[in-house]
Structure formats: structure tokens, C-alpha cells
Amino acid sequence: MKLTYDSEMFINTFESEFTWLNGFMRNVRRFADKNAAIDPASGKVWSYAQLNLDANKLANAMKNDGVKKNDVVFMQLYNSPQFLFGYIAPQKLGAISNPANFNLSPGETAEIINHNKPKVYMYDIEIAQTAVKALEICEHKPSIVIYTNNSHKEIAVPKNHILYEDYVKNADDNNPPTDFAPHIYDEVVRLQTSGTTGTPKGVPLNNINEVLSAHDVIMHFPLAPSDVTMNMTPWFHRGGLHSGGPTPTLYVGASLVILRTFNPKYCINYVEQYGITFMTGVPSTLEMLASRQEKKPRDLSSLKGIVTMGSPLEKAACIRFQKLLTPNIFNGYGTTESFWNTFLRPFDLPDMAGSAGKSCTDDEVRIVKVYDDKMAEPDDVVATDGCAEGEIIIKCPAKSTYSYIENEQAAREKFYKGWMYTGDIGTWDSNQFVTVAGRKDDMIISKGENIYPARIEEVLNCHPKVKESIVTGVPDSTRGECVAAYIIPEDETLTVSELLAYCESSPHISKYQAPRYYRFVDELPHTATGKKQHFIIKKMAAEDLKNGLLLKK
Length: 553
Description:
Layout: H1 8-17, H2 20-30, E1 35-39, E2 44-47, H3 48-64, E3 72-76, H4 81-93, E4 96-99, H5 106-116, E5 120-124, H6 128-137, E6 144-148, E7 162-163, H7 164-168, E8 187-192, E9 202-206, H8 207-220, E10 228-231, H9 238-242, H10 246-252, E11 255-257, H11 264-274, E12 278-281, H12 283-295, E13 305-308, H13 315-324, E14 329-335, E15 339-344, E16 358-359, E17 364-368, E18 390-395, H14 408-414, E19 415-416, E20 419-428, E21 434-439, E22 444-446, E23 449-451, H15 453-460, E24 466-476, E25 480-489, H16 496-505, E26 517-520, H17 534-546
Parallel strand pairs: 1-11, 3-4, 3-5, 5-6, 6-7, 10-11, 10-12, 12-13, 13-14, 25-26
Antiparallel strand pairs: 1-2, 8-9, 14-15, 15-16, 17-18, 18-20, 19-20, 20-21, 22-23, 24-25
Helix pairs in contact: 2-3, 2-10, 3-4, 5-6, 8-10, 11-12, 12-13
């Protein structure tokens, strides 16, 4: 390609230097003494200079152990100082930070370890039982296993697992030398989606994705160095990491309050104590905050806004939050692969509550027709009448690599001509406000977690007294959806208590995935070719819940 100017310096500079880490390091220099991270649990505060020194200690300790470019650092950590170090330090070595859900079962954890082959595994002491079991059953064995203990609990771990403080105590705190060639397309973070029947998909994010995801938040809030953020959701989520989490906050030079686990009392108190300006959480957490503020009000005048993600925001709830918490409510919709892609700003609410908003500044969102035997073309859209339903597709070149790690089939099913096909069904109106109507597939969304029935059915069907099962979601006021299982018993003596105990002891499903409701039936709906018809069961389950036919124990 022939250009009208000499582009060599621009290309060389841009492609090697437009990275999230360089943005963070600029803040280390210009905001050295400014608060970067506040940990209420320990009372410790890190300036940008101090945060960099602690990240350097982890980076140098790992470098001494041979961690290098493209090595994977797998983390199952609560929001914590060590999560921050584990996010920053690998980037200093050209390695890949791989945060994952700490609620996963040992079997799911082992699947991710086998798939990503991490050199380092960091876990929280509170999930030691899961971590130890996962390492026993996985084929790939990380060469370095580190545990953190912010809860100060005495829990036995294997002798070759190293306490974080012991691992870094003799490490140098100087910036490690850059002995690799950084590039904007280098993978720096790998997130995990929920698995369907196989391994949870690895979602690679490169330097450009990290920088422009940060930019997206900075311009949509907007976020400035004077702000103080607190994300009430786990950072291992895309929304947790990027919406008011470490990525935009530390890139813009603002301050971050670390919330290990959600507690409405503490959250409300922290707003007043630390002058928090932006919080992020799912609608159910906002409801708990509002109830707390109603009963024991605190000074929330520092709040510039609260961002909610994970599920639609109902109009009545929105008005309640605006009255009790802040008039500035934001609502985002998106995916692990693409961050948020539609947005409702305060001036859209409460009128447009219930919708997902319209596309973000750098994104485009469309509703295309659904066919049984093919993907719709990106321009094969449904009418913008607020009634015609179709699949929601997203174009977001700034925030997605349009790929999965070593899973070409899944990528072909999800990505097409620069668009991501979400699997969500929705409508749009003449102003391109999108409303989500449901799922094209059978996925259940509970408290922001994606749950796929096939995985749970596979576990249930292995019970010797179960002949067949279908799993679906039922409405729940707190979680959005709960998991319900319809069972054809192989043995009539089967009880719900047996199934509850069985799921609790299974290494292959997590606590949040286990069914909360059961119903024993004589038959289940199938197509002529034998495929389970989840959509029929879903409708049945909603009615059964209303009529008290679903059993909890």
C-alpha cells in the first residue's frame, strides 16, 4: 500500500508502544504519589509508584522462574491486591494474565488448565480444596503454584504450593528489562466463557483491545484521574475487569477501591468513606444497595454514577435507584468477547429502561433474521419496528479479537464478516434502541453467570437412578434465573435430596450451576430426530414454578 507520507516512524512507534502497560507506566511517572488502589479489608493503600513496585516483585520472581513471552499465568482470585499484581506483572514479561471464575468446580478448573497449559497458577486459599483437586485430575501440571491468603484462614495446602508473600519476598522491585518485542496484537489477557459441553472457551484480548476497552469506559462514564471507582462484581468477568475495574481505572490514573466480596452495608459505607464516584454492579446488587440506603442512609453525594450490567433494568427499579442512590444510572449490554456494545446513559433513563440502549460510540449493533440452516448476512436485518425479532449481532473491532483459543469451530459459529453473532434474540426500533427478548440457544443467566444446560444434564444423567434429564432456567427475583431440572427416574426411589447431595459432591459442576428446583416426569419433549426441546421445558417450568410443582427438597 502506497501512502502519501513517510509512515515508518508512526508504524514502528504505534505498533510497539500503544499498549495498556505503557499507559499504566505513564501514570506511575506522572501520578507517582497518587492513590492507585485502596484495600478496605487490610486498610492498605498503594500509590501508583508502590503498586508498580509490588507488581515488579511478582514479575521479577516469575522471570527468575523462567516465565517469558506468551506464557500463561492462570488466576482464580477474589478481587484483591494480588489480582492487581497478577494482571500487571505478566504484561511486563510479555506473558498472558488468565483470570477465571473462582466458583468453578475442580473438573472445570482442570479443563481450563489442560486447555491453556499455564506455567503459573495462582489461587485464593478459600478455594484450596477446588485447586488441589483440579491439580490432581488435570494432565498439565503448572510448574509454579502460588496461593494467596487474604482471609488469614488456616487451611492445609500441599508443601509445593507457595504462599504469595514467600514467593515474592526476595524478588527485585525494579522494572524488569523488556527483553521481548512488544506488539499491539500480542495477547495480554485471556478470559474464559462458560463451556457448553466441552472446555470453556478462551477469549484472547490483545493490547489494542485493552487500551480501547479502557478508552470506551473513559468516554462513556466519563472517567477522569480525579475519580474513585469500585466494581461490585468479580474482576474475572469482562465487565468486572473493564467496567470501572482495573483496566480503565489504572489506565486513566484514577483510584480503585478493592471489594473482595459484595456486601451492601460495606459498599454504602465505602462510598462515604472513600468518596467513590463510580460503582458497577448487576441490578440485583443495586436493589440491595437501595434497601440498605432506605433503612440506614449514608452520604452518597460523591457518586457521579452507577453502572449496571448483566441483565435489563426495569423502569420501576430504575426510578427507585435514581431516587435512593444517584440520579445518574447507566446500563450496558455486551459479552465476554466484546465487552459492552450498547449503552443507556442517564438521559435515556427511566424512559428507555427495559431496553439495552443503542450502540456504543465505536460499535455497531444490528438485529438480523434467524434461519434454521444458515447464518444471516449482516445486512439481512429485521424491521426497526420494535416488534420483529431477530438475532443481535455486534461489530466491535476495537474490543474483540474475533477468535477463541484453539477452537476454530466455535469461532466459525460465532464470528462472521467482522460481526459477532451473540445468540441473543431481540428487537430494535426506529432509533435503533435494542431490546433483548431471550436466547437463541438454551443458555441460562443467573446472577450474571452464563450456565449451559448440556453440562449439567451430562452430570445428572450419570446418576444411576436417572434415566434422562432436561435442565432449564426459571425466573428468580434475585438471580434473574435459577436452574431447574426435569428428571425421568430410572429408579422410582430417587429423591430430590439424593440429587442435591449428588450435585454438591460432583467435581464437574459448580455450586451456582447446581439445580435448585426439580420435577420428576414420565417423559421429556424431543424432536423427531431425538433432540431435546428446551424451549418447551422452559415455558413449562415457568408455569410449574407459579403452580408450586417444582420441588426444592
